[in-house]
Amino acid sequence: MAATTLDRAAPAGTGPGTAVTGIGSLLRFMLRRDRIRLPAWTLGLPLLMTYFAAALDTIAQSPEDLAGLTAFTSSPAGALFGGPGFGFDDLTIERFLAGQYGLYILLGAGLMGLLTVVRHTRTEERTGRAELVRANVVGRHAQLTAALALTAVMAVLVALLIGAMMTSRGFDVGGSMVFGASVGAVALTFAGIAAVTVQLSEYPRAASGMAGAALGAAFVLRGLGDMAAVQGSGPSWLSWLSPIGWSQQTAAYVHDRWWPLAVSLAFAGATAVTGYVLSARRDFGAGLVPPRPGSPRAASWLAGPFTLAFRLHRASLIGWSAALLVAGVAYGSFTQPLLDGFENAPEDLVEVMGGGSGDLLAGYLGMMGLTMALVVGVYAVLAVQSLRAEETEGRAEPVLATSVSRTAWLGSHVAVVALGVPWLLLVAGVGMGVGAAASTGDAGLLGDLLIGHLAHTPAVWLVLAAAALLYAAVPRMLPVIWVVLGYGLIAGYFAPILELPEGLLRLSPFEHVGEYPLEDVNVVAVVVLTVLAGALAQAAVSVFRRRDLAGGA
Amino acid sequence: MTAAIDIHHIHKSFGRVKALDGLDLRVDAGTVHGFLGPNGAGKSTTIRILLGLLRADAGQAQLLGGDPWADAVALHRRLAYVPGDVELWPNLTGGEAIDLFARLRGGTDPVRRDELCQRFDLDPSKKGRTYSKGNRQKVALIAALASDVELLLLDEPTAGLDPLMEAVFQECIREVKNAGRTVLLSSHILAQVEVLADQISIIRQGKIVETGSLTDLRHLTRTSVEAVTDRPAEGLANLAGVHGLRTDGGQIRFEVDGDQLAVVVRELGELGVQGLTVRPPTLEQLLLRHYGDRPVHNGAAEVA
Fold it and tell me: Is residue A523 pLDDT above 60, yes or no?
């Protein structure tokens, strides 16, 4: 008995070869758990690329169409949201696909890598499941190694599938393989980064947040570098600081360089080794960065349902404000290059931008107002979903067991979100305005954009009130509200192409106020939408008083 | 005595599942009332109806003289509630949550709050997501005990507490009782209810099957006796009310109905008792009688 115990105990503690004992079973177990996720990622990314390819085929049917696209994409703005534009002076479909749309496939691959690693390491530790696993004959590094191996398998699958898919469309085999491999390489580098971030914090969300921030930084760095490269001056070397940049520097279908991917592999290896070293320096379940204590007392203002609702929505409001400000400035600074680039854009695209009337600038600004309104609509719906989580996860129950009425509880949350809506539109408008004014040198655009953005407030309110009513009446049906936003997007962007009749178009709450400055703000629509939203919110509150509350336990 | 809680024939169904099936419950003001039953018997549903979180399908409920559904907000100022599974906001500290609940209930005593934090050994500066189940439970308990209310509704309040904290909890409930407040204490932890409750109601499948003081209920069950006697005691098996008598190397064990205890003890005396252990029925046995229709021991057959 004693001998067998000793036999088993010895290998677990010694030598690198046995620190990964049990990796085979763990990997099989992970494959079993990811039987939906793994195909979703590894088929999803190639399918997205297929979609891009098919869409491009319909937009650009002749060489002239392609040439029209280049004017836009080889501008600095095009570089920011696309890439360094290798071979764009002699453009082909596949060069455009890899050089412009490829960026978004690379981003997706980065997300796949970091989310998979966090899911199978820190999340497992946090929930306590890893403790059960580690109590068996499983080596210290087996879990991380198995997670990295799983991600590597996914990366190789994605690389091969994308390469095969591009080849099957008749593109050059060598270039297709380089492009596929460049996608897989991004997955590996961000798996490595996640292997480090999961060691830092106790919380899976913080770990994926840090790795996600690294992905964002990689996007911005290569964006700045690529802009400089396209302009032919400035710090184009910045692209070489970014894992996404390395993959783009392979210049698929132009130079077909493999060697930048060696940098990616070396980086992935180095970060993974760092992850192993750090993991040996921390306790199981702990992070290297200790959690900060908070205030032992509540601030004096935190004393009622409204201030509680504000406190609970505050973090998300701050995050959305920052994101919308950055997005606003980015899209605002697009304005001038876009006007230059659109001079010979395909007719359909001009039509979507409202350019039929000949005023491209007003069309673009009005379009951006609608875009931001739809994004803020997403915020409003997510906020109502968080309310549902408050109920189902049992945090609403103890609040409603105090002297807070149901009306006050739901009303406070809806009121906080309703105030957040014009605030976020204002922030987005300021960002757009500053960006557009700087780009075109016309300071007057700031005012136009503020009006254009804020005018959409009642439309978003209507979406919010409808979501609140769905939640109050039939919580399970809340996801139906996404249909309204989805339809708003289709009606707003593709109505001219789809030739939707006017009556159908006006079903979308976003099609009434008008896209200022292209169209005037329809004051009657503003009033009607506001009154409608108020009525729906009122209905939500009175319905909510009548139903049973879902239990936490 | 006035009733703090008075429920008549409440029914509640969730779809096809009948949670409460004509439940009656009366809790006198100023008492600690144990609300005992296995999981899924309907304890939480009853409490959530009392809180106006659920609406009863039929029957009447009175809480502190009001209607729990219609007067929910006014009544909630006068009571405090601790759920069985406490969930806190991940990014609010325990201290913030305690203050918030107390303020939402309409005021708190900061001195008492700090004293309770100390007694329960809770660090109020930690974020909600870092607390264990036991610590989340402490947050809700402190928030409830620090408020000046007439009624405490406690739904399995000590499920995650260690024995030391359980003792602190019992001390606190005694103080609450001495201050003249009412407590409804739901539990399936029998020892806890036994120690604290003046009155007990046992719920099974949505109905109260037994109610009364612990003494009242003991008449319904059997006392366990272990004895060492000079002379053979097998003859006791023939007495009325004696069940499951077994001899084990000079030691005898049996159970006896509560109302036959006096006769049996007299008889034991005649046999020259050297050692005697008499254990009152535990609530476990009370529950077994109601939930398993099998007897506590199958001893009678063995002896025969």
Answer: yes
Of B44, B100, B105, the CB nearest to A302: B100
- CB A403, CB B76: distance < 8 Å: yes
pTM exceeds 0.90 for this model: no
Name the token pair of B198. 């003046």
Q: Please state, in angstroms and as integers, the Cα–Cα distance from residue A384 to each residue in A411, A418, A478, B38, B234, following that order.
A: 12, 11, 9, 36, 73
Picking from B92, B93, B101, the nearest residue to A398 by CB comes out as B101
Alpha helices (H) in A34-172, listed in sequence order: 37-59, 63-73, 76-80, 93-96, 102-120, 122-127, 129-134, 142-168
Residue A125 and residue A207 in contact, taking contact as beta carbons nearer than 8 Å: no
Burial class, B219, CB count within 10 angstroms (exposed 0-12 / middle 13-18 / buried 19+): exposed
Cα distance from B218 to chain A (closest Cα, Å)?
33
Chain B residue numbers with beta carbons less than 8 Å from the beta carbon of A311 are 92
Q: Which residue of B has its CA nearest to A302?
A: B100
Which chain B residues have a beta carbon less than 8 Å from that of A545?
none
SS3 B60: strand
Residue that the structure tokens 């159908």 belong to = A504
Alpha helices for chain B (secondary structure H): 43-50, 72-76, 94-105, 110-119, 133-145, 163-178, 190-196, 214-218, 261-270, 283-291, 299-303
Listed as ranges, residues in chain B with pLDDT below 70 are 1, 218-221, 282-284, 287, 289-304
Pick B125's closest partner by Cβ from A202, A295, A546.
Answer: A295
pLDDT at site A553: 44
Report d(CA A94, CA A247) in Å as an integer: 16
Q: What is the pLDDT of residues A52-98, one digit of tens each?
A: 888 788 777 777 777 767 766 666 667 877 888 888 888 888 998 99
Report how far residue A247's alpha carbon sits from residue A268's, in angstroms, rounded to the nearest whole number.
Answer: 13
B chain contacts of residue A201, beta-carbon cutoff 8 Å: none
Shortest CA gap B174–chain A (Å): 23
Please tell me which residue of chain A has the smallest CA distance to B82.
Answer: A398
Using a CB-CB distance cutoff of 8 angstroms, which residues of chain A are in contact with residue B72? 400, 405
pLDDT score of B222: 75
* Residue owning tokens 């406490």: B86
pLDDT recorded at residue B304 = 29
The residues on A that touch B, with CB distances below 8 Å, are 202-203, 291, 293-299, 302-305, 308, 311-312, 315, 393-395, 397-405, 546, 548-549, 551-553
Query: Residue B193 is encoded by which pair of tokens?
Result: 């209810």
Contact by Cβ (8 Å): B123, B94: yes
Sign, CA dihedral B73-B76-B82-B84, equals: negative
- Sign of torsion over alpha carbons A203, A26, A272, A221: negative
Q: What is the ipTM of this complex?
A: 0.81
Question: Taking CA atoms, what residue in A is nearest to B89?
Answer: A395
Contact B103 A303 (CB under 8 A): yes
What is the number of CB-based contacts under 8 A between chain A and chain B? 114
By three-state DSSP, how is residue A453 classified? helix
User: Are B125 and A294 within 8 A, CB to CB?
Assistant: yes
CB contact under 8 A, B104 and A551: no
Residue A363 falls in which region: left (phi positive, over 0), alpha (psi -120 to 50) or beta: alpha
Greatest CA span in chain B, whole angstroms?
A: 70
Q: Give the closest residue to A254 by CA, choosing from A198, A179, A323.
A: A179
Could you give the CA distance from residue B237 to residue B211 in angstroms, rounded to a whole number?
Answer: 31
Chain A environment of B127 (Cβ under 8 Å): 291, 294
Determine the residue among A297, A308, A310, A399 to mutate to test chain B binding: the one whose Cβ has the most chain B Cβ atoms within 10 Å: A297
DSSP string for A373-398: HHHHHHHHHHHHHHHHHHHHTTSHHH
